[in-house]
Structure formats: C-alpha cells, structure tokens
C-alpha cells in the first residue's frame, strides 16, 4: 500500500494530470527531496504536513455583504460533506487533503446572476493563535451573468490550512483579492482552484505581506471556450518570512486567454537571528492538444533589495498543440534598474527616496489593475509601510 501511495503523488502525463484526492491518507508525508516541496521549510509548518499539528479548533470566518446586495448574495456555513463542495476538484497535495479530511465545516457564498456591483463582499479569516490549528474550505459560486468583487482577508496569528474554490458560470465575471496580512508567526497553506464556464472572466489577485510561512497553490481550469483568466500577485518578504506560490493554468478547451503577472520584493538582514527572507514562485501553464487558439503569457519579477534575501523563480510552459494565438513566459530576479535610478538622481531626488519610488512603481503595475480604489489604497499603504523600515 505504501508503494501505491507514493506513486499517487507523482506527476503523470502532464502538469494538469497530477494526482488529486480529498483523503489525506492517499498522500505520503512529504520530504525535502520531493519536487513539489523542495523549496518549502517543512520544519516550520508546525506539523501541517505530517499530522503532528496542535489541537484543532473551529475556524474564525466572517462574511460581510454590502446592503445593496442583500438577497442577491447568500452565505451558508455547511457541513464538510455538503454535495455543493468540491466542484472544482480535489486538492493536489497532502496539506490540502489534510484540510479537507479534518475540517468540520465550510463557508459557501452564492452570488446571484443579477449582481452587477464592485462593492466588495468581504471575507475575513482570523487566526486562532499558535496553540491551535484550523482547517476549512471556502466555496464561491458566481452564477451566470454576474459581475462581482470578493475581498478575502487573513489577519492574526495561527496555524491554518484551507481550500478555496471559485465556480464561474457562463458569462460570469468575478474579481477576487486574497490579502494575506497575517501576524509574524502565522503559518498558512492553501489550495485555490477555479473552474470557468463559457466566456467567464476571472481576475484573481494575491497580496502577500504577513506570516512566517505562507504557501499558496492557485489553479485555473477552463471548461468551455471564451474563458479569460488573469492571475496577479504582489508580495514583500522580510527577515523570517517564507512565501511560496505554485500556479497552474490548465488550457483544456479552445479559444481561451490567460495572463499571469506576479511581482515580489525581498529585504533581509545578514545580522538577524531570523531565517533569511525567501520566496519561491513556480508558474505552470499547460496548453492541451485540443486547446487551439489559446493566448497566454506568464511573468514573475523579483527585486532583491538587500543582502540576506533569496528568490527562486521557475516558469514552465507545456504546449501540446501548435495552433495557438500566442504563448510565452519570463522571470527575473535582480536589483534596481540602474537607468531608472540614474534618471531620478539626475532630477535631484535623494538616493534613498529614489530607490523607494522605484519599488513603489514596480508594484503599481499590478495594484493598479484592482478595480476598487480603497483596496488599492490599502495595498499601496502597506508597501509604503514596508519601505519605511527598509534601508536601501
């Protein structure tokens, strides 16, 4: 049996056909040499990966609906075996399956097709302390024709693992911001899976600033032609923080579009007793044999601001048909743009201010695409706060 389990957790024909399961027993305990865990500091996961985590407690999840959407957006706390859960498929790793196997309840948000509003539906997950572990799932169902905005916030400290699923009906448009603003000790591992119907549009944004270890796995699958997915992300890692993001965009049908753009900055302190600031970004795009007319591009850019920081960037593009509109990928890890810095210095701007302006401009390309002004302002303020404590 052990040999069969180990085989289950390996890759098969392509990146889109990896083993998935809702049962934690179907996955072996990961080790540092496993490909999909090779960057992750397993010793810092507080046992999420091997079952030795602290005692579980009920998660603290609150949903706030604007008054204008009353009656058009419904929220239910449902049992783990509710048949409306799991529509996007099973988790791809042991921790995601652990969250599914151990959770007692989940949150189901249903958005009526009549909704045409960017007033945010706000979902807040608050950590329950480092002596507790919480598991849950969040399902957002965007009915055909709707246009809605969901803001998911993580705050406090705790040990947390969850599964998100976004189900978009035909012609639905859903914008999601996942804002990870945990406390300094928090550990969060999450699977995030989206399924898009015909001509559906998903705008998925990740803003990652807080937590000790955060590992996210966003995945998108197109089920009918005309789908459009944009996955955007910003992250800023300090001493003692490890952020990992593993993405998969699965083009399984013709004439769909995807764009992935993630930007990160890292700052460390060689004299600090904390682990170095570190990030890992792995982006996979799969274009299957019957996905003619696909148009896709993925980009990851990283600014290493100081010594004592390390970023890994691994873009992958797997193409099984030549009949596509376009495909490409790019990734960089580097320091400041010397030409931009020279330009600002030549205009009389002091060097430390010039460097901070460059960093803020670096992130603005991503943040500027979020359609709600006060959410953009929150993220801009958070970057400014990070930079205020940085000696560049």
Automatic annotation (TrEMBL):
**Example of a GO biological process term:** iron-sulfur cluster assembly
UniProt cross-references to SUPFAM superfamilies, sorted A to Z: Stabilizer of iron transporter SufD
Q: Where is the SUF system FeS cluster assembly SufBD core domain?
A: 131-362
Report the sequence similarity comment from the record.
Belongs to the iron-sulfur cluster assembly SufBD family.
Name of the molecule in the record? FeS cluster assembly protein SufD
* UniProt organism field: Corynebacterium choanae
The major lineage groups are: Bacteria, Bacillati, Actinomycetota, Actinomycetes, Mycobacteriales
In the UniProt record, the gene name given for this protein reads sufD
């Amino acid at each position: 049996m052990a040999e069969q389990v180990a085989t289950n957790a390996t890759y098969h024909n392509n990146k889109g056909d990896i083993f998935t399961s809702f049962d934690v027993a179907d996955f072996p305990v990961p080790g540092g040499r496993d490909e999909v865990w090779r960057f992750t500091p397993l010793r810092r996961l507080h046992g999420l990966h091997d079952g030795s985590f602290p005692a579980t407690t009920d998660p603290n999840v609150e949903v706030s609906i604007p008054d204008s959407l009353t009656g058009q957006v419904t929220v239910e706390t449902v049992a783990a075996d509710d048949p409306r859960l799991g529509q996007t498929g099973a988790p791809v790793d042991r921790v995601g399956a652990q969250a599914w196997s151990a959770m007692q309840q989940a949150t189901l948000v249903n958005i009526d097709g009549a909704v045409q509003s960017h007033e945010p539906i706000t979902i807040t997950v608050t950590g329950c302390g480092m002596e507790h572990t919480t598991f849950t799932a969040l399902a957002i169902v965007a009915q055909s024709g709707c246009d809605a905005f969901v803001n998911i916030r993580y705050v406090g400290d705790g040990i947390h693992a969850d599964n998100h699923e976004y189900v978009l009906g035909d012609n639905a448009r859903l914008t999601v911001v996942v804002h990870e603003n945990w406390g300094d000790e928090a550990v969060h591992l999450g699977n995030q899976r989206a399924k898009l119907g015909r001509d559906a549009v998903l705008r998925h944004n990740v803003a990652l600033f807080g937590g000790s270890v955060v590992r996210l796995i966003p995945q998108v699958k197109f089920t009918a032609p005309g789908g459009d997915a944009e996955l955007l992300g910003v992250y800023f890692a300090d001493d003692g923080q490890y952020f990992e993001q593993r993405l998969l965009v699965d083009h399984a049908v013709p004439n769909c579009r995807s764009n992935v753009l993630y930007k990160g900055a890292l700052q460390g302190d060689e004299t600090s007793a904390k682990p170095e600031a570190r990030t890992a970004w792995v982006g996979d795009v799969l274009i299957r044999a019957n996905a003619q007319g696909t148009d896709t591009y993925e980009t990851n850019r990283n600014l290493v601001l100081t010594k004592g920081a390390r970023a890994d960037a691994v873009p992958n593009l797997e193409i099984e048909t030549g009949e596509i509109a376009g495909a490409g990928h790019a990734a960089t890890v580097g320091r400041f743009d010397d030409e931009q810095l020279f330009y600002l210095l030549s205009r009389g701007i002091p060097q430390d201010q010039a460097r901070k302006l460059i960093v803020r401009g670096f992130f603005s390309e991503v943040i500027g695409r979020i359609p709600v002004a006060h959410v953009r302002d929150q993220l801009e303020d958070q970057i400014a706060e990070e930079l205020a404590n940085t000696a560049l």
